[in-house]
Specification:
Dna Ligase, domain 1, 4 domains, Cathepsin D, subunit A, domain 1, magnesium, 27 strands, single chain, protein biosynthesis, nucleotide-binding, ribosomal S6-glutamic acid ligase activity, Rossmann fold, 465 residues
Length: 465
């Protein structure tokens, strides 16, 4: 007995699940050898040994506002001659076609079919041996509908390859390498960009970011890892990406607020989030009054621009406090004065927040007599369990400073958790080693949920008759 035949009409509905296209109408044409899919804004990306291609498609010819972004491994680039005799160099991908219960691999070329009533042409090379085409019939296989594009839960099942950029001046540090590994293991392409070598073309429509003499492409997401020394320029670059519609893991506003310790504490206070009693001063003559504002000594003095525990001093006595204030006055520096939380005993808790959840926490303990628990200052870290109140405080602090990913440092005070600092570019090494968790992978998962797939852009929803 011969194999059972699979009949196609001259027009059929099919799905391309690997591309996140649950329904597309195709013209079946045995006169054409090559299959073609409508695509525009076609752009290759990724490493030379694993090239990718991304493109946009309007799957519904009747709704030009419905736009889906797709990506696929790039198989080839080939010259194709169309039925009118014109030849065109096209990108070629291999993907899965599905009709009813049947799925099979097909090779497809990408070309702009915007003027065509069928967004796809199914040529003879895409037909299996047991398939026959009945030119007099339409829709021999189950019919689909464009309405599925407005069914968000179905679209969420698809995960496409993303084009990502990490803004950093430290391409070889642990955090950068960890993010690259997590992205590439999930099939995404990553470019590392030195923030200081970016320059911008600022205009109302079609602003651009340039880098080393070339215009940067559109990224699905940008991961800013901006050092404190270039906060102003770094946030300007992030703002430019934001104005171009790119998702930035840490927004420019959140980076700016978290870097300015005074601004951050004012925001936390406005949201009634616990923190050590804080006073702010600039070289005051009346240092005694500033000291009394935070309840006297011992107290902690911090330069506004301090990071990694540098520029942070503990003063045990009033004389010591006054001499440090005097030194800061000589520097004409802005600084914070904070009450010292004795019961924390040189320990703090680093809560790593991703997408509104604490995904891991570690307890950091200072080395020797040093009250600073920063790992950069020789502190040690171990995974720890945190209370519901501590978890809520960390999440609220990250949300108040508008950060999707943040390292929130807490002290365990007698009257509850107190936020010391919110870091917009938290390091991954300490938290990954202490917890044994793939934190970079959780960050990538969050980025995927934010940008892949994008909800279809459509202003014309079909109305029930």
């Amino acid at each position: 007995m011969g194999m059972e035949q699979f009949t196609l009409g001259w027009e059929e509905w099919l799905a391309l699940p690997d591309l996140g296209l649950p329904a597309i109408r195709a013209k079946v044409d045995t006169g054409a050898r090559t299959s073609a899919l409508h695509a525009f804004a076609i752009e290759p990306f990724g490493p030379s040994d694993k090239p990718m291609v991304r493109f946009a498609i309007h799957p519904d010819p009747g709704d030009p506002n419905l736009e889906i972004i797709c990506s696929a491994p790039l198989k080839d680039r080939r010259e194709v001659t169309s039925s009118n005799g014109e030849s065109e160099l096209r990108f070629v991908i291999e993907t899965t076609a599905r009709m009813g219960d049947r799925s099979w691999p097909i090779e497809v070329t990408l070309t702009d079919r915007g003027a065509m009533s069928y967004r796809m042409l199914l040529g003879r090379s895409a037909l299996a041996e047991d398939m026959i085409v009945s030119p007099a019939q339409s829709y021999c296989q189950p019919e689909l509908s464009f309405d599925v594009y407005h069914d968000a839960p179905r679209l969420k099942q698809h995960r496409r390859a993303l084009r990502l950029a990490i803004l950093t001046r430290e391409p070889d540090n642990y955090s950068t390498r960890s993010l690259i590994r997590a992205a590439e293991s999930r099939g995404h392409a990553v470019e590392v960009i030195d923030t200081t070598r970016c320059y911008m073309n600022i205009r109302a429509v079609g602003g651009e970011v340039h880098y080393d003499g070339r215009k940067l492409p559109h990224y699905d997401a940008v991961i800013p890892r901006i050092g404190a020394s270039i906060t102003n320029y770094g946030t300007a670059v992030v703002r430019q990406f934001e104005s171009m519609g790119t998702y930035c893991l840490s927004g420019s506003e959140g980076i700016t607020m978290s870097r300015d310790k005074l601004h951050a504490h004012q925001v936390l206070a406005r949201h009634r989030i616990g923190m050590p009693t804080t006073a702010f001063a600039r070289s005051p003559k009346d240092s005694g009054n500033v000291i009394s504002l935070v309840g006297g000594v011992p107290l902690v003095l911090k330069l506004l621009e301090s990071t990694q525990g540098k520029g942070v001093v503990l003063a045990d006595t009033k004389n010591a406090a006054e001499s440090v204030i005097s030194a800061f006055r000589g520097l004409k520096a802005d600084f914070l004065v904070q009450s010292f939380v004795k019961e924390a005993a040189g320990e703090d808790i680093r809560c790593f927040v991703v997408g509104g959840k604490v995904v891991s926490a570690m307890r950091r303990k200072s080395s020797g007599d040093d009250f600073r628990s920063n790992l950069h200052q020789g502190g040690t870290a171990e995974a720890t369990r945190i209370s519901k109140r501590e978890r809520d405080t960390a999440v609220r602090a990250a949300r108040a400073l508008k950060l999707d990913v943040a390292g929130v440092d807490l002290l365990r005070g007698e009257d509850g958790p107190k936020v010391l600092e919110v870091n917009s570019s938290p390091g991954l090494e300490g938290i990954e080693r202490a917890s044994g968790k793939d934190i970079a992978g959780l960050v990538m998962q969050h980025i995927e949920q934010k940008v892949a797939p994008r909800k279809p852009r459509s202003r014309t929803r079909r109305k029930e008759a």
